[in-house]
């Protein structure tokens, strides 16, 4: 996926399922063949296009704000300039965009740029907290640098995927399946929630 596609897709994943985000992104790309078309469309039209992703009014504004800012900085929508930057410069550049936080930046860095960032979504945050990698008071935003220090750069992408899958299948938010957990003996919070 192109860098900007990954960024916009990641915005669409916020507070919804991957399936709903995928539907919204496919519709967005089919209705608007290029990013200039998205910028030039009305907010209501964009909201209707991405409604499957939920929070369409907020996400439409965020997407347009991001696109406006990128175009203002680069005079185009090509984010290939990020490929020539160091990891912290890329993170800063992405987070400086309106509505882009540490998680969105880390997803783009990891998935689109193959950089050793460590995205902390709701599943990763929950599993990391339960396993004691972070404290119960550590926010998801604050967990990014902690997890990046704990996990070797070469293992971050795989570990991120493993934690997401573990959080979805076993270490669920409600009624975690501790009796089916393969790492229950290493979990300080097993059978507590």
Features:
Endonuclease III, domain 1; 193 residues; globular; mainly alpha; Endonuclease Iii, domain 2; 10 helices
Q: Largest beta sheet, briefly?
A: none
Distance, first to last CA: 38 Å
Compute the number of strand runs. Answer: 0
SSE topology string: HHHHHHHHHH
**What is the second-level CATH architecture of the largest domain?**
Orthogonal Bundle
CATH class of the largest domain: Mainly Alpha
CATH superfamily of the largest domain: Hypothetical protein, domain 2
Structural class: mainly alpha
- Taking all Cα atoms into account, the compactness measure Rg is 18 Å
- Proportion of residues in extended strands: under 5%
CATH topology-level fold name of the largest domain = Endonuclease III, domain 1
| Overall average residue pLDDT | 97
Count of the domains = 2
Number of helices: 10
Q: Which residues sit in consecutive blocks of at least 5 with pLDDT less than 50?
A: none
Given the C-alpha coordinates, what overall shape results?
Answer: globular
In a nutshell, what does this entry contain?
This protein has helices at residues 3-13, 18-31, 35-40, 43-49, 56-74, 87-95, 102-112, 122-130, 140-150, 156-169.
Strands, helices and their partners?
Blueprint: H1 3-13, H2 18-31, H3 35-40, H4 43-49, H5 56-74, H6 87-95, H7 102-112, H8 122-130, H9 140-150, H10 156-169
Helix pairs in contact: 1-2, 1-7, 4-5, 6-7, 8-10
Structural features, described:
This protein has 193 residues and is an all-alpha fold. The chain is built from ten helices and no strands.
